[in-house]
Specification:
With about 500 residues, this protein is of the alpha/beta class. It contains 14 helices and 19 strands. Strands 12-13-16-17-11-18-10-19 form an eight-stranded mixed sheet. Strand 5, helix 6 and strand 6 (about 155) form a beta-alpha-beta unit. Helix 4 (about 75-95) runs parallel beside helix 5 and helix 8 (about 210-220) runs antiparallel to helix 9 (about 255-270). The longest helix is centred in the N-terminal third of the chain and has 18 residues, at about 75-95. Bound molecules: zinc ion. Zinc ion binds near residues 139, 140, 141 and 163.
C-alpha cells in the first residue's frame, strides 16, 4: 500500500501589503523527497504524525514535497502555479497511488483562488484519480469549504490552540486513510459554516467558550459511527467569502449522522457568540499594569496582538515600545523584546560587538506598526539567528532561522533583539537563550503573538497581558476594510441570525 504525502501550507493575511512569491517559500522551507522525513522525524509536526501513522497502520509513505512560509500576504499566481505544477507532476511520475495524505493549512488565499486549499485538493484528486482516497490535515485556523470536502475523503483539523496536537491529528488522518484504502470504512463528511468569527483573543482552546466548544467536539468524536469531528476556528485576517467558524463531522457511511452532529456543534457554538468578542487591554493600560505588576521575581509578559507574527504581523511594531518610553518605564533589565530590522542589524554588525550605536529601530515595513524609535545601546551579542527547540511548542516547530541577529542593551535598561528575517514570532525561549539572554531575568517581556507564545512563556510569566495594539493582526476587527467576507457575519452585523 503506497501513500504519497505532500503539503503546500500557507496562512494568508490578505491585509498584508507584501505578496507571497515563489522565493518566499524557497527561502523559508521547501523540502523534497527524503529531505522531508529527515527534517520531520522526531518533531511535533503533522508530517511526523504521518510517518508514525505509516508504521502503525502499515503502509509505505512516500514524501514528495512540503513547503511552508510564515503567514504573509496573498500567494502570487506564479508561486501557486509553479508549486502545484511540481506537486501534480511528482504525483504522476511516481504513481500509481493507493492514497494521498495532504498536510495543508486551510487558510491559504492566492491571487487566483480565494480557496487555495480547495483548489490544491482538486488538483491532487485530478492527478491521482477520483477513486484514490485523499485525507487532508488542517490548522485550527482554517476556513473550511465545500470544495475542500468534495475533493477529499476526510479532513482532520488540529483541536488545540496553541497547536500542540499535530502528531495526533497526523495519526488520525493516517488511520482514516489506511482503513479507507483497505475497504474497512467509507468516510462521509458534512460541513456547516456558522455566520460568526472568533476574535483572536478568544481563541485559546483551554479556557472559556472555546474550551466548551472543543469539549463538544470531543464528545462527537466519541460517538459511535463518527470517525472524526473538527472545528475550523477560521482565519479572520483572510478577506474571503468562506472566512469564519465551521464544523465538520466525518462518519463511517452515515450521511445523516454527519449532518446531525455537525449541526449540533454549530448550534452550540452559535449560542456562545457573545463570548467571542475582543478581550484585550488598551496599550496605555497594558503598560501601566506591567509597570506596576507585583515584584514576584517573574516577568510580566505582554502579548502584542496587532503584531501577531504567527498571523501575518510584520514583526517590527513599536507601539508598545513607544508607550513604555512615554511612561518612562526604565531600569536594569526592564524590557526584553524582538524587532525585525535588517538595516539596524547591518549597522550594529558593522559597529561590532561591544560597540555603542545610535539607531532608529523598527516600524519600517509599513505605516500601521508605529514609528522607528531612536535608541542608544551597546551591541551585546551577534549571532546567525539559528536555534533549535526540542520542547513542545505551538505549531510543532523545531528548527528556526531568523537570519543574522543582534542583541542591543539600551541606556534605558532594555534588551532589544534585532533580526534580519521575520521568523514566526516569539514561540520559543531558545530564541533568547541562543543569544545568551534569559527572559526570566526581565521585568517585562513583549511577545509578538496572541496565542502562539503561550506554551513558551506562560511557564515563566508572573502575569500575561493581552494588549490591544494596532496592526495588521489587530483584535479590533472593525479596523479592517473587508471586501469579500460573507454578510451577515457576527459580530460585524450584530443582528445576524442562524437557524
Ligand atoms: Zn493556527
Amino acid at each position: 500500500m503506497r501513500v504519497a504525502t505532500l503539503g503546500f501550507k500557507h496562512e494568508t493575511n490578505t491585509f498584508q501589503s507584501v505578496k507571497t512569491d515563489y522565493d518566499a517559500f524557497v527561502n523559508f522551507d521547501f523540502l523534497r523527497g527524503s529531505q522531508i522525513a529527515e527534517r520531520h522525524a522526531n518533531t511535533n509536526s503533522t508530517l511526523n504524525g504521518f510517518l508514525k501513522g505509516a508504521a502503525k497502520y502499515e503502509f509505505e509513505l512516500v514524501p514528495l514535497l512540503l513547503t511552508i512560509t510564515g503567514p504573509t500576504g496573498t500567494v502570487t499566481k506564479d508561486a501557486f502555479d509553479r508549486i502545484t505544477a511540481e506537486m501534480t507532476q511528482m504525483l504522476k511520475d511516481n504513481g500509481p497511488w493507493d492514497g494521498v495524505l495532504l498536510a495543508q493549512h486551510g487558510g491559504a488565499v492566492s491571487e487566483e483562488f480565494p480557496d487555495m486549499d480547495g483548489e490544491i485538493a482538486r488538483l491532487v484528486k485530478q492527478a491521482v484519480g477520483q477513486n484514490t482516497p485523499v485525507a487532508m490535515t488542517f490548522d485550527l485556523h482554517s476556513n473550511i469549504t465545500q470544495q475542500q470536502i468534495a475533493n477529499t475523503e476526510a479532513i482532520v483539523v488540529y483541536r488545540t490552540n496553541p497547536h500542540i496536537d499535530q502528531v495526533e491529528r497526523g495519526l488520525e488522518a493516517s488511520e482514516i486513510l489506511a482503513r479507507t484504502i483497505r475497504g474497512e470504512i467509507n468516510p462521509v463528511q458534512h460541513l456547516v459554516q456558522v455566520p460568526m468569527i472568533v476574535n483572536i483573543t478568544r481563541q485559546p482552546t483551554a479556557v472559556g467558550a472555546m474550551k466548551s466548544i472543543m469539549d463538544d467536539v470531543a464528545q462527537v468524536v466519541g460517538t459511535p459511527g463518527v470517525l472524526s469531528a473538527s472545528c475550523g476556528q477560521g482565519f479572520p485576517y483572510a478577506d474571503v467569502e468562506q472566512m469564519g467558524v465551521s464544523f465538520l463531522v466525518v462518519t463511517d457511511g452515515d450521511a445523516d449522522l454527519a449532518k446531525e452532529q455537525s449541526n449540533w456543534l454549530a448550534r452550540r457554538a452559535w449560542d456562545h457568540r457573545s463570548e467571542m468578542l475582543n478581550d484585550s487591554t488598551p496599550v496605555d493600560e497594558a503598560i501601566r499594569q506591567a509597570a506596576n505588576a507585583d515584584d514576584s521575581g517573574k516577568p510580566t509578559v505582554i502579548l502584542d496582538v496587532g503584531d501577531n507574527v504567527g498571523g501575518g504581523g510584520t514583526a517590527d511594531s513599536t507601539h508598545l515600545l513607544a508607550e513604555l518610553i512615554r511612561q518612562e518605564v526604565k531600569g536594569e533589565r526592564s524590557l526584553l523584546m524582538t524587532l525585525f530590522d535588517p538595516a539596524a542589524v547591518r549597522e550594529s554588525i558593522a559597529a561590532g560587538s561591544g560597540a555603542t550605536v545610535n539607531l532608529k529601530v523598527g516600524a519600517k515595513t509599513d505605516e500601521l506598526h508605529g514609528e522607528p524609535i531612536a535608541v542608544t545601546g551597546k551591541v551585546r551579542a551577534i549571532t546567525d539567528g539559528r536555534f533549535e527547540e526540542t520542547g513542545q511548542i505551538h505549531g510543532g516547530w523545531r528548527y528556526f532561522d531568523y537570519g543574522p541577529s543582534v542583541a542591543l542593551d539600551t541606556e534605558d535598561g532594555y534588551t532589544i533583539v534585532l533580526h534580519t528575517e521575520r521568523g514566526v514570532g516569539n514561540m520559543s525561549r531558545q530564541q533568547h537563550y541562543s543569544m545568551g539572554i534569559f527572559p526570566e531575568q526581565y521585568r517585562i517581556v513583549i511577545c509578538k503573538g496572541t496565542v502562539s507564545p503561550r506554551p513558551a512563556y506562560e511557564p515563566i510569566a508572573g502575569a500575561m497581558i493581552v494588549a490591544d495594539t494596532p496592526g495588521v493582526t489587530s483584535a479590533d476587527m472593525s479596523s479592517f476594510n473587508y471586501k469579500h467576507r460573507r454578510k451577515p457575519l457576527y459580530p460585524f452585523e450584530l443582528d445576524t441570525t442562524f437557524h
